[in-house]
Amino acid sequence: MSYINVILLDENKAFQAELTEIAKSTDIYIDRVNSEKELYEALATIQYNVAIITIDQTQAHDLNLVTQLRKKSALGVIVLTAAPSTAHRILSYESGADHFFSSPIEHKEIVAAIRNLFVRLTPIAPNAPLGSYNWQLDKSSWCLITPDNHEIKLTAKELKFLELLMSQFGENVDRHAVKLTLGYTTDDYGNRSIDSLVRRLRKKVLSNINIQLPLQTVHAVGYCFSASAQVLESQSN
Question: Could you tell me the CATH number of the domain that includes residue 92?
Answer without folding.
Answer: 3.40.50.2300
